[in-house]
Amino acid sequence: xxxxxxxxxxxxxxxxxxxxxxxxxxxxxxxxxxxxxxxxxxxxxxxxxxxxxxxxxxxxxxxxxxxxxxxxxxxxxxxxxxxxxxxxxxxxxxxxxxxxxxxxxxxxxxxxxxxxxxxxxxxxxxxxxxxxxxxxxxxxxxxxxxxxxxxxxxxxxxxxxxxxxxxxxxxxxxxxxxxxxxxxxxxxxxxxxxxxxxxxxxxxxxxx
Length: 208
Description:
2 domains; 6-stranded mixed β-sheet
């Protein structure tokens, strides 16, 4: 499929670029997308949650009251979970949420979500550009000229561009990533996927 190439002024340059059917027009695999998104979100978790159990609570070990004759339940320690300030029963412990995901499945997931985006006309190709200095107002101007309607957009560049990144950092509806940082989660979250011309060649190299 061919898509027109736009400049940062939102005008059609007259050039067209052909997108590979092996990447942008496959039969999407929903389960692969689910697994890759789950894998991405699991890796964002620190897993440092921890609560104290009764063996870790500081407190007296004396018996609180006599065993019988009180009319209430037996109580042997102030650190018991049934008392306020006592330990927690089966509380969370530090753990790693990561799990293994095959490389081919990750590639299938990315191809699937890109195919969905192209089918929904949510992919645009733009000329490679650079900003001389970081400028949030310039990035807002580009967003308006490309008619993105302040919807969440993913700007995909070939290599890291510090000025472009800093210009978009304060805008919650624009995310800038390089092709190597591309993830199924970020693509799925975006309403507009903006690909630079050169990034298409890199994508073809990565997936083929």
